[in-house]
Amino acid sequence: MPEFTLRQLQLFAALPDHTTLSSAAASLRISESALSQAITALEKLVGEQLCVRRKARGLQLTPAGVYFAQRARRLLQDADALVHDLAGSSGELKGPVRLGCFGSFASNVLPAILEGLPRLHPGINIDVTIGTHDDLLPALDTGLLDFAIVYDMLLPAGYSQRTIYATELEAVLPPDHPLAAQDSVDLAQLADEPLIMYDTSPSTANTYQAFAERGLRPKVVANMPQLVLVQAMVGRGLGYGLLMTRPNSPAQTLEGRQVAVRPLDPPASQTSVVAIWPEEMRLSPRAEAVLGFAVQALHCET
């Protein structure tokens, strides 16, 4: 049976984050030759080439190397969890939790978590990564995150999940728009209106799907990669937006302009914001504590 050290795993697990051996060595604070020797030793143990090291082309992992790095990260997570689980057997949880959060609602959910958690678990340190599904799912799969808070829509198989709060599409309108006088809005009323599309995964596909289910197609006049830009353009009367409901969400833009938020009737894209993590992984007690607090805090504020 191959024998390797945790240090060797730590070194190799860091390689996917670097394009050259020298940058990896600098980040790991060891010499380039020492890192190269550690890689060679691992390759001898597993009997396969794990990476290609060429000065002109930099550092490139082989398919076996990518797989090895992913598994190494998970083994290191398990080792870290073991140590901190034992340290926390006295009742105090200590150590890091790497939390991913979908960008469009991060500003609405993270402050409540980051403010309240230290009062219950002062020994837990949260490291936050913000992104879209395209950013967060690969980070989960490679062990860079403990769990991620995302929309429960268009998710691939292979993830465990827990519901945090329910959500659905809402229309965001200029306050003087004729439809803003209504208590609710039908998608059919919006089809010919100029839509400022929140253009990110999975929001774009979800919006088109909501219209398609009604036999409609939106009139997209602009694609914005950030939610605040959608709101800003709506606030200036350039169109309307379709955004998922979020807790702690004021009806105004960053410029201080008002917007009118109206539910859709009939409702569209009723789904949930959920925490997800790979099925083959078990949440550490620290991650469980963070997730449990998030469910409690955000349920109270929705």
TrEMBL record:
User: Which segments of the protein form a coiled coil according to its record?
Assistant: none
Which PROSITE patterns does the entry mention?
A: HTH_LYSR (PS50931)
Q: Under what name is this protein listed?
A: LysR family transcriptional regulator
> Which molecular function terms from Gene Ontology are attached?
DNA binding; DNA-binding transcription factor activity
- What keywords is this UniProt entry annotated with? DNA-binding, Transcription, Transcription regulation
Q: Which family does it belong to?
A: Belongs to the LysR transcriptional regulatory family.
- Domain HTH lysR-type as annotated: residue spans: 4-62
Q: What do the Gene Ontology cellular component annotations say? A: protein-DNA complex
Q: Does the keyword Transcription apply?
A: yes
SUPFAM superfamilies, alphabetized? Periplasmic binding protein-like II (SSF53850), Winged helix' DNA-binding domain (SSF46785)
**Keyword presence, S-adenosyl-L-methionine:** no
Q: Which Gene3D superfamilies match?
A: Periplasmic binding protein-like II (3.40.190.10), Winged helix-like DNA-binding domain superfamily/Winged helix DNA-binding domain (1.10.10.10)
Q: Which domain of life is it from?
A: Bacteria
